[in-house]
Amino acid sequence: MPEGPSLAELGEEGLLKRLAVHAPPDQWSDDAALLPELQGQRWVISSDALVQGVHFSEATTPAWSTGWRAAAANLSDLAAMGCRSCAGITVALAAPGRTSALWLEQVYSGMNQLLQDHGGTLLGGDCSRADQVMLAITAIGPVDPARQVRRGDGRPGDALVVTGTHGLSGLGLQWLLGNALSTSELSEATIQQAIRAHQRPQPRFDAIEALHASQPPRMPWRVGGTDSSDGLRRSLELISQASGCRAELDPAALPQPISRGDDAVMKALCLDGGEDFELVLALDQTWADALVQALPSATIIGQLVDHRGPPCWSDTKKPLPDGRGFEHFNQRSD
Amino acid sequence: MPEGPSLAELGEEGLLKRLAVHAPPDQWSDDAALLPELQGQRWVISSDALVQGVHFSEATTPAWSTGWRAAAANLSDLAAMGCRSCAGITVALAAPGRTSALWLEQVYSGMNQLLQDHGGTLLGGDCSRADQVMLAITAIGPVDPARQVRRGDGRPGDALVVTGTHGLSGLGLQWLLGNALSTSELSEATIQQAIRAHQRPQPRFDAIEALHASQPPRMPWRVGGTDSSDGLRRSLELISQASGCRAELDPAALPQPISRGDDAVMKALCLDGGEDFELVLALDQTWADALVQALPSATIIGQLVDHRGPPCWSDTKKPLPDGRGFEHFNQRSD
User: Fold this and answer.
1) pTM of the complete model
2) Testing the interface with A: which of B29, B123, B151, B332 to mutate, by most A Cβ within 10 A?
3) B304 phi and psi angles, rounded to 5 deg
4) Which domains are delineated in chain B?
5) Which residue of B has its CA nearest to A94?
6) CB-based contact (8 Å) between A322 and chain B?
7) Which of B121, B166, B143 is closest to B276 using CA atoms?
8) Which of A152, A155, A165, B184 qualifies as a FRET site for B141, CA 20 to 30 Å off?
9) Number of CB pairs, chain A paired with chain B, less than 8 A apart
10) Other Cβ atoms closer than 10 A to B319
């Protein structure tokens, strides 16, 4: 191999910056890619790789859940672009020859169950040998070109809306890993809910439906947004950077799954736990009010303001507390 | 992992049969998947995984060629469905942190060069850590719904047409691996041509254009076909099985890159070398004659006949000589 920095030295962001020279400008700036419009119709396409030992392990994820989560992550990217449905997925599988066929059938059964619940079919794919199991999934879905959701479409004054709580999936993962989290205070119901959030996340096409239904009359379509696969903080960073704004978060409105006073662990899981696959949206205050009426799981958590900077608290204007980053090439993510 | 057979025990075909229960019937029976028709327009989508040490190695494939070949294989699948162009590709990359960023940039540069030559953009993708470099590429392109090419659309009496010679890529690979092939008889020009065929294969969108241009007036569109990624023999098997016919091959018309009398090695490379990424088509004799006129690289190599069975010679009706299979989970393919 040639000399120069390694991927670990560059980090994911540095790598993407270097690779983006091979794509049209801004092509890679959203959750998924928009295909060229063809006769007034547009498709959205999204690809993700899941690697055994990195994104899933037998300790925390049964086979069906591995399949379910892999498909859910991709469908969530479609929802984050404004798609209301998915046409289907392709699956490029690489696995060692010793892999159990039954295990793999359960993975595909999980993907198929997710598709049956949320729409779409297993369109096709490819099988290959490798030393490690990898599932690369590509999802494709139609979007109304006049009703897209883009990260950069937030504006100063917009309300920030989340479609559900954040931190449950991370809590479930920590529990499954056996990590101590003062769990004596957690009820059995919360633990079950957290495990379910981790093993069976739901792509929020229903939130896009609610967004359509709640659009105030005569208000033009303009919605900034992304999904919270890499955590709430990261979603806020992505929207505010792309929109040239700053996200101010109301500390009283932090969408924690359970509130335990000033609990630093729960706050960290809420901001940085990741993999909740909710939508984080920036839109007009009137529309936001209508949306949270139409979608009971949604809440307004803050607003976009007219200067740049990292997400901060709305009262003190201090940046959110430091959390763990999500850096693919340097550390294990689970 | 649960009990039961391993992937190696099942083999690729056995595995696909088990997994196909999760897809609609016949969904997986072509080179790529057709998306649902949307307002008279249709997209074709194809995914492939390439794994270091299985599909490419530094010994035989420089970085730019790894990228070029990965993208070319997917665009070839689009051409095999009748697409005349590609909108773009997504790339899901998994790689160890120690991977050279420069190497990876060269891979993307190769993909980009292929796209610049043949159309399409790097739509997006994903990066992740893994123990081994894996590239999962998904290509998408539009197809005229009235002018698709399907494996099962061959009919008895059809001429079999190949868009170019077969065996050059395999010859190039064997040369690069340093394997003895009585190469004293090969000219330097042939060797260079073979290396180029292996490192820089061309998706045959031009052949689909020629197919359109050569369609005889008043003859309805019906073209069976596939690409020859897994070898000429495999292409003939796929078309004849899906079309319920048998492929008869004219021994004098075997599309070898160089003819050296009754050379068993060259014949084996031609039938089973693989990765030539030509198209193998089954169509009306009149149309086939017009096509080989319009496309000088194309030749008629035989015909489909009205009973089932493995591909055979047209004179003796004996099956083609045994060749090596291409079995992803059992053996190394290069």
Assistant:
1) 0.90
2) B123
3) -95, 140
4) 32-141 (3.30.1330.10), 149-313 (3.90.650.10)
5) B49
6) no
7) B166
8) A152
9) 280
10) 13
